[in-house]
From TrEMBL:
Designated name of the protein: Molybdopterin-dependent oxidoreductase
Family matches, as InterPro entries: OxRdtase_Mopterin-bd_dom, OxRdtase_Mopterin-bd_sf
Segments forming domain Oxidoreductase molybdopterin-binding: 25-167
Chain positions covered by the region annotation Disordered: 1-20
Amino acid sequence: MTRTSRIDPPSRTTAVRAAAPEDAVRADARRLVIRGQLRRPLALTVADLRERWRQHRAAVVFDCAKNGPRHHTFHGPLLRDVIDTAEPTFDARRRKDRSRYLLTVTGGDGHHTVLSWAEIDPDFGDAPILLATAMDGRGLDGTGSQLVVPSDRCGARYISAISGIWVGTCAPPERP
Ligand SMILES: Nc1nc2c(c(=O)[nH]1)N[C@H]1C(S)=C(S)[C@@H](COP(=O)(O)O)O[C@H]1N2
Ligand SMILES: [Mo]
């Protein structure tokens, strides 16, 4: 975000910056923000993802256009379980309502991808997509969580250093 787009008054911004130790600022930058059409938006560290939800394991192979096949073992909570906690605004009893929702997942470098809620919903695709807390036995606390999409053949949606997830609906297409 550029300075000119900040909405804080300058005096308050200066005061907050002066008071915040460098470590706190960096730790805050590593929080993954889950926002959008949710009743309980969340801001989570990798430690939160590890402690608050049941951990699953996924041994995966995905292909990178540049580097060929990659083999990794990930641990982390199901994306579905974490987003459930944030309470999407859909009527959970209505499958049609749930099927309208999308998620965007964005990495710290701006690389982002789209998922549909139906991919991870047990009544539809039921894909065991993870928000990884560890890769190959090493914690991701320093770099941030990584999206793990075991059913994808290629690696483009394995977003690393996740900074944000947005959940919501898009406007219906205009009638022709
Ligand atoms: N944040 C972010 N995540 C990313 C990418 C990226 O450019 N930025 N590239 C993707 C692609 S194309 C691949 S193949 C995998 C690479 O995973 P690797 O680090 O195991 O090689 O990361 C994915 N995740
Ligand atoms: Mo890739």
